[in-house]
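Structure in, sequence out. Go:
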């Protein structure tokens, strides 16, 4: 469906078809007049008269008008010429050029306060935005034009703005609002005047979209007759298009075709790209509806040809608007500078006049003023010297204060860092004392009690063996606890460095198994060791040793009597993964999730009531991560736990060769 928007020049509507007698009269005046001001407005009138009959001629007169207006520095005439050129481009279908000239006209009219011209410019720019579906921006500009028309009591301008707003609501599919605005516009206009043409056609198109095609035909027939009477070809194009669409909506394509054919012929005659595109699209639909696909394809091709031209103009329009915004901002700055210069000149003129009035009095006082000036100058020099010295003193004082302030800020930052460090050390101290008081004191007290029983002979000789095993296990646990405690303290106080070196994993595991064998025998546990001799780590040996001791010790601690502990290693790429698996009590999911979460781990008692500090796993995680490794665990309640950790492997040519041979063997298989 078609949306009709009315282009205006100032607030008066002029027939679209140039009258030959009028043109001849204006050309005669143009040739005979010697008044340049009259000539520029005659050129504007001629440009307007050729809008719908000859785009190139309209453009020629418009360009001549703008050149002459600039020479005369006639801003109102220049704005009128720009607006006329914009309308010519708009009817031709070149929206980018149209908008460019509309904005130039608008800028001039804003600067000179041309209220009537502003209304026309806002209306025309709004039409360009509406053609690109920028509906909200279009309505905003129409409302500005509407306000100006109301303020100046311009009935025709008000009606044109109302009609255009109605077309915007038609595009938004709000037909009730659309027909309301258009009918209000028609009420303000003489139904037999050329000004009402656009509103008649708009009403017809809206009624077609509402399904009331009989009303649509009535309005379009009235518009067609009036357009032919006043000689407005563009309005005749709109009326023909509306009649064809109304008959098509009434399912009468045979009635629509003659109007559609005359529509496309007239649109091509006035060379309006957008109208040709719309007319070709309408014929394509009609021929498709009647089953004449050959003609349907013909007009589809014509539609696409003109659609590409209109689309290219739309893209250029956006670029033109951006360029204008930049140019407008630059012009505003230039206007401000010009106003400032004008004010300065005015002030200079006023001062010169005042000087002339009081010249006589000034001459009488010259001698006195000279003396006063001399004395004042001497005093001013003394004051300036004093002020300069004061400024120097103040500057030196300010620099001293700034230096003092900076020094105090540095001291405050240092104190804050020291405070944070002391708070951390204090926390370490509290944790250390807590562990000593609760976890280390208990085993030592038990050890003391056991030794007292033995020294008093209260333990029979035949039962001394189990007591000695318990004593050894308690002593070993206490030593490990103390070892973990000291290491943890050093870590917290940043006193531990990593020293990676070639580390024999199998040897470390063997040493720890021998060390922990008494505890394992006490619980009747079996070790299953699957550590490859070639698996050599590149890590801190002492840290790896502590990790193995803690993980194997924990496996013993939480294993049930008669269970098994399995230690194995696997190499993947440049890393070795070690696992320690037990058949103990396992862990609940929530306990497992919190093991390496970064929070403090609470100690749990072992299956033989063994105690711990809760620091072992923290140390393991810290040492492994410092050696560029990772640690994790898998566990299920009642099914035991498996702790894994991965560390970098020591590069070995033999191992690399073995891995390649294994990979080739897998591929061959």
């Amino acid at each position: 469906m078609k949306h009709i928007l009315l282009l205006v020049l100032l607030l008066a509507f002029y027939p679209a078809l140039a009258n030959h007698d009028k043109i001849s009269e204006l050309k005669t005046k143009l040739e005979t007049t010697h008044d340049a001001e009259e000539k520029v407005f005659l050129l504007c009138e001629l440009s307007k008269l050729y809008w719908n009959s000859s785009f190139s001629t309209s453009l020629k007169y418009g360009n001549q008008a703008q050149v002459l207006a600039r020479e005369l520095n006639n801003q109102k005439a220049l704005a009128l010429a720009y607006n006329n050129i914009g309308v010519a481009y708009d009817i031709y279908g070149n929206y980018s050029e149209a908008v460019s000239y509309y904005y130039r006209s608008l800028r001039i009219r804003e600067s000179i306060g041309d209220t009537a011209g502003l209304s026309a410019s806002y209306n025309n720019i709004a039409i360009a935005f509406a053609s690109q579906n920028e509906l909200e921006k279009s309505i905003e500009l129409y409302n500005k034009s509407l306000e100006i028309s109301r303020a100046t009591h311009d009935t025709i301008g008000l009606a044109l703005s109302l009609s255009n707003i109605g077309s915007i609501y038609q595009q938004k599919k709000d037909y009730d609002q659309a027909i309301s605005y258009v009918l209000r516009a028609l009420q303000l206009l003489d139904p037999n005047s050329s000004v009402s043409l656009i509103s008649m056609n708009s009403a017809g198109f809206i009624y077609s979209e509402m399904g009331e095609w009989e009303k649509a035909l009535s309005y379009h027939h009235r518009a067609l007759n009036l357009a032919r009477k006043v000689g407005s070809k563009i309005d005749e194009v709109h009326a023909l298009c509306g009649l064809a669409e109304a008959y098509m909506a009434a399912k009468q394509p045979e009635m629509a075709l003659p109007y559609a054919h005359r529509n496309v012929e007239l649109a091509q005659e006035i060379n309006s790209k957008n109208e040709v595109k719309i007319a070709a699209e309408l014929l394509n639909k009609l021929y498709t509806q009647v089953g004449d696909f050959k003609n349907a394809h013909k007009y589809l091709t014509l539609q696409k040809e003109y659609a590409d031209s209109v689309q290219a103009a739309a893209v250029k329009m956006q670029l033109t608007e951006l360029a204008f915004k930049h140019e407008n901002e630059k012009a505003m700055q230039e206007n401000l500078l010009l106003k400032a210069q004008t004010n300065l000149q005015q002030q200079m003129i006023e001062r010169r006049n005042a000087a002339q009035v009081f010249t006589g009095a000034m001459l009488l006082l010259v001698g006195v003023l000279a003396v006063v000036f001399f004395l004042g100058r001497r005093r001013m020099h003394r004051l300036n010297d004093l002020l300069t010295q004061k400024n120097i003193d103040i500057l030196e004082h300010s620099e001293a204060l700034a230096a003092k302030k900076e020094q105090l800020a540095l001291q405050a930052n240092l104190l804050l860092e020291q405070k944070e460090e002391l708070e951390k050390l204090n926390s370490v101290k509290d944790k250390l004392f807590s562990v000593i008081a609760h976890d280390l004191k208990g085993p030592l007290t038990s050890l003391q009690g056991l030794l007292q029983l033995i020294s008093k002979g209260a333990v029979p000789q035949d039962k001394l063996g189990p007591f000695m095993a318990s004593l050894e296990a308690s002593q070993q646990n206490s030593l490990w606890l103390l070892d973990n405690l000291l290491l943890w303290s050093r870590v917290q106080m940043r006193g531990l460095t990593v020293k990676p070196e070639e580390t024999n994993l199998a040897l470390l595991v063997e040493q720890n198994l021998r060390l922990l064998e008494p505890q394992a025998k006490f619980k009747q546990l079996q070790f299953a060791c699957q550590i490859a001799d070639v698996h050599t780590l590149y890590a801190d040996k002492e840290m790896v040793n502590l990790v193995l001791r803690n993980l194997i010790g924990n496996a013993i601690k939480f294993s049930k009597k008669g269970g098994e502990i399995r230690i194995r290693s696997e190499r993947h790429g440049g890393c070795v993964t070690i696992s320690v698996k037990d058949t103990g009590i396992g862990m609940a999911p929530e306990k497992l999730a919190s093991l390496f979460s970064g929070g403090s781990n609470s100690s749990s008692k072992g299956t033989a009531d063994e105690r711990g500090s809760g620091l072992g796993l923290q140390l393991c995680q810290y040492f492994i991560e410092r050696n560029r490794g990772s640690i994790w665990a898998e566990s299920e309640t009642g099914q035991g736990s498996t702790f894994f950790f991965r560390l970098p492997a020591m590069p070995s040519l033999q191992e690399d060769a073995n891995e390649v041979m294994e990979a080739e063997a897998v591929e061959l298989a």
